[in-house]
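Two records follow; treat each independently.
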Amino acid sequence: MPSAPKKTAQVIIDTKNDYLGALKGNQSGLLKAVEDNFIPVQSDFQINKGHGRIEKRTVSICQNLDGIPDFPGLKTLIRVESERHIYRANIVEVSTETRYYIASFIDTAKAFAERIRGYWGVENKVHYVRDVTQAEDVSRIRTTPLIQSWAIARNLALNLYRDIGFQNMAQAQRMAGFGLNTLIELFRMK
């Protein structure tokens, strides 16, 4: 029986769509084969500065699928090598990481780099806020109708915060919790 990622990829291909997905440990056979057989044909190098850190990223692509297990629609292998320098109290902490992705389409290394960075923007803007700021992962709500109701309430809160101009959702949540004036402004009450 095919694995869940393989089934999902097949559905995506069958519906005439494309995928770009991260390879993780649960696809160990495919991940190991990609690591062992990856021969870059094109690379894109980026440096980003901000939030007390410098991050260097090299995104490389490979379209040679020799030695790679059969996977629905697979056309491109992507490797992202990142080196992060974090400055804390006059100490520089350096960490490196290599991640692999697969895609069902062909594009340039630069285009893949932009797509992957775009995904992390969504991850940081939405999922991280919901998981950490709104503590969704530690929620003890388990009853089916309540799960959806709370998800809607959390999304409403985030949309209201962004609508009145908050960039920092943790700060917005604290402000809304501190007083009635912020809540009145959120709901545009007079």
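The next record belongs to a different protein.
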Amino acid sequence: MNSSRTITHSAPSSVAATSIVSSRLTVETSSAGFTDITREVAKFLREARAGEGAVTLFIRHTSASLTIQENADPSVLVDLTTALDRAAPEDGGWRHDTEGPDDMPAHIKTMLTQTSLQVPVLNGRLALGTWQAIYLVEHRSRPHRREIVLQFIGATR
């Protein structure tokens, strides 16, 4: 049985993708957890003079990841950390522990999440939902310097 619903969409827009603009974002993490990088990505789009297109983010590491998640209630990030820790606990009997007991769990957590994201850009702005933010997720317990490649593909102003 179908419930009643309304479905609408905006009129399509079209632009020629005439530019590719790239940059690297370096983030210093202090320990495991989520770092909101939404403002830095928005700043990159302003500097790139982005119009319509898409921005791709790619993290160049195997023990940290990227995600789009809730930005209003911090308990969401706490619960996500708990879920990842349950999925890949440090005491899981892992063979690979070259850099410590959090080494293999960090690789598993990265595999369960994402190393790249693509976000539409409309009129120079990230087309994120009201409660969405872009996060770097550090899976290691000690500080790291993480590098994210940013690339805008689309029309510039």
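Discussion point: The chain has a mean pLDDT of 95. How would you locate this feature using only the token line?
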